[in-house]
Amino acid sequence: QVQLQESGPGLVKPSQTLSLTCTVSGGSISSGAYYWSWIRQHPGKGLEWIGYIYFSGSTYYNPSLKTRVTISRDTSKNQISLKLSSVTAADTAVYYCARENYGDYSDWFDPWGQGTQVTVSS
Amino acid sequence: SSELTQDPAVSVALGQTVRITCQGDSLRTYYASWYQQKPGQAPVVVIYGKNNRPSGIPDRFSGSSSGNTASLTITGAQAEDEADYYCNSRDNSGDHLVFGGGTKLTVL
User: Fold this and answer.
1) What is the mean pLDDT of residues B35-63?
2) Distance (Å, rounded) from C-alpha B22 to C-alpha B99?
3) A56-82, pLDDT tens digit by residue?
4) What is the mean pLDDT of residues B48-56?
């Protein structure tokens, strides 16, 4: 059973870079059957897709965040990473990593990590 | 603004049937997936594809689609179904994913 666990600083100063890691257990991120995504949720708000990385290393990002986001992978550690630069208070959110499954004209996120709260504040 | 539109709130009497909808142009091409999120918890997928339920999801949850609208139906809503529900699919470009704004379901 695949499990995902996010980790990283819970507090980031404005203008700095937010860095999070998602450790995957029970399955390999090198599998071609999945994408590996980051999703965030602002306080009291809905879900926002940040981007994903494919087993080949290809990445796709939310156009609204594209200039500040980098998603990468470390296959030796079976980890996915998120970097978000030049953060502001608007980046305060719970950040989730999730495995994205895909099929005929269908994508779905399962499983999800438990999420990690990141607050941007001086 | 979201490219998938959901009603912010819906209510249903205990044991009755409720439909939660999601509208967007991309739904003419892609199926929606649906997620249930309870306070303080990560979302859980309840429906994906044409009408697929992951193991462990009760069969009172079902999905359908027509034109630009996807629907999640709960037949015989239970108190434990009270939660936020989000739809998700690819956008019109096919390269990106997008979520609806979410629907808060209250079971009366």
Assistant:
1) 97
2) 10
3) 899 999 999 999 999 999 999 999 999
4) 96
Contact residues, chain A to chain B, C-beta under 8 Å: 37, 39, 46-49, 52, 60-63, 96, 100-101, 103-110, 112-115
Q: Read off the DSSP letter of residue A99.
A: E
> What are the tens digits of pLDDT across the range A36-49?
999 999 999 999 99
- Which residue shows structure tokens 């009408």? B51
Judging contacts by C-beta atoms under 8 Å, the chain A residues touching residue B49 are 103-104, 106, 108
Instruction: Find all residues with CB under 8 Å of A101, minimum gap 6, and list them.
Output: A33, A34, A107, A108, A109, A110, B48
A58 Cβ partners below 8 Å, 6+ apart?
none
Q: What is the pLDDT of residue B16?
A: 98
Give the model's pLDDT for residue B1.
43
Closest CB to A105 among B30, B95, B102? B30
Q: Whole-angstrom Cα distance, residue A57 to residue A62?
A: 17
Please classify residue A65 by burial: count the beta carbons closer than 10 Å to its beta carbon, then call 0-12 exposed, 13-18 middle and 19+ buried: middle
CB–CB contact B96 A101 (8 Å): no
Cβ-contact A57, A73 below 8 angstroms: yes
Kindly state the average pLDDT of the residues B10-32: 97
Look up residue A7 and give its two tokens: 């980790």
Which residues of A are less than 8 Å from B99 in CB distance? Answer: 39, 46-49
Inform me whether the pLDDT recorded for A29 exceeds 80.
yes
Contact call for B99 and A107, based on CB within 8 A:
no
